[in-house]
Amino acid sequence: MNNEQIRTAARKHLDGLTKPVGSLGKLEDFAVKMAEIQGKVVPESGKMGAFVIAADHGINEAGVSMYPKEVTKQMVANFTQNGAGINVLARHCGFDVFIVDAGIASDVDLSQVIGCKAGYGTRNFHEIEAMTADQLEICLANGKQLAENAVTEGYKILALGDMGISNTTTAAAMAIAGGLPAESIIDKGTGISSEMLDHKRRVILESIERHAPFSDAKDIMRKVGGFELATMAGFILGLKGKGCACMIDGFPVTAGAYMAWLMDNEVSAYLFAGHKSKVKGHAVMLQAMGLEAIVELDMRLGEGTGAVIGGFLVNLGIKIASEMASFNDAGVSQSTGKEENY
Ligand SMILES: O=C(O)c1ccc[n+]([C@@H]2O[C@H](COP(=O)([O-])O)[C@@H](O)[C@H]2O)c1
Ligand SMILES: Cc1cc2nc[nH]c2cc1C
């Protein structure tokens, strides 16, 4: 069956379940998209995993964040002790958590963190290219390998989360270099003052001017990217054709996804936008990729917190498709005419 036939058959299956046509709204849409992703009319639920990928950013030296870069590794320690927002939400949404070091500025305890270090933080892209071509290839390859391993281990829904002080500056530079309008992208990350936001805007615009023109997504990531965000791009590209959905999170993760999308527009077919972040440029990137956020809770934490909440709801869509009784099975009378889905 091709995609369109699966879509039609999945919708027909849902219409045969004991409910008015379309009455489970977006849960039904999630089930249909999962059917297409898995190539099965009735999608199957399975293991769910959140990959929280961390790295440091040289651009932190330019004074664009309220926080020192040490918070990246301190939060990674918090993740490993199950004390962070993602640990709580992942636990209650049914996701296993994996922590990845893609380029933290110091060494971390690798007994609880997956080592994928491309360097000890990127360079300050206000002055010089963020990373070498080799470092970028390492990130893309590491991301692809992480995704392939997760699929081999039977994960059906994967969520991406980020941890990287100053990465909202990196993410904004990536989005703008990728063609999106600066005025709709640049915003606060963590809570900075309006003077600091003006400074952040200047740093981003000067960096774009320094490194322009940008030939493609790889050129963007090499010049103004981040190790964790490039690893996420590789992760997403690595999931193509694997029957697995990927939940994306807020502004930084979505900048990584946007790079993957620039490299291959078809990634949108297996991406879900877990939530809409408070950071204004997030919605602009989602729209460019043709994705609609599942929930809007005014969140702006990162770590994959919005991704696992959205993933929980996608999984409910799968449960509906796979566990509800049909009109035939339950002996419930169907509508007397052709029912409209409104
Ligand atoms: O996910 C989001 O939309 C989001 C919005 C603002 C901040 N963050 C998180 O905060 C950190 C970056 O903020 P900043 O101000 O240092 O650029 C990084 O660890 C992100 O995970 C995340
Ligand atoms: C405390 C803290 C936790 C975070 N989690 C993701 N980004 C973060 C940034 C800060 C500052």
Please specify the SSE layout and strand pairing.
Layout: H1 3-15, H2 25-38, E1 47-55, H3 70-80, H4 85-93, E2 96-103, E3 114-115, H5 133-152, E4 155-163, H6 167-177, H7 182-185, H8 194-211, H9 217-224, H10 227-238, E5 245-248, H11 251-263, E6 271-275, H12 281-288, E7 293-295, H13 305-323, H14 327-330
Parallel strand pairs: 1-2, 1-4, 2-3, 4-5, 5-6, 6-7
SS summary, helix count? 14
**In terms of structural class, how would the helical and strand content be classed?**
alpha/beta
Instruction: Identify the CATH homologous superfamily.
Output: Nicotinate-nucleotide-dimethylbenzimidazole phosphoribosyltransferase (CobT), large domain
Task: Quote the average pLDDT.
Answer: 98
| CATH fold call | Rossmann fold
Strand fraction equals 5-15%
Q: Can you name the CATH architecture?
A: 3-Layer(aba) Sandwich
Q: Helicity range of the residues?
A: 40-55%
* Quaternary structure type: single chain
| Tally of strands | 7
**Which regions contain 5 or more consecutive residues with pLDDT less than 50?**
none
User: What is the element string, with H for helices and E for strands?
Assistant: HHEHHEEHEHHHHHEHEHEHH
Distance between the termini: 28 Å
Main β-sheet description:
7 strands, parallel
How many structural domains can be distinguished in the coordinates?
A: 1
Report the C-alpha radius of gyration, rounded: 21 Å
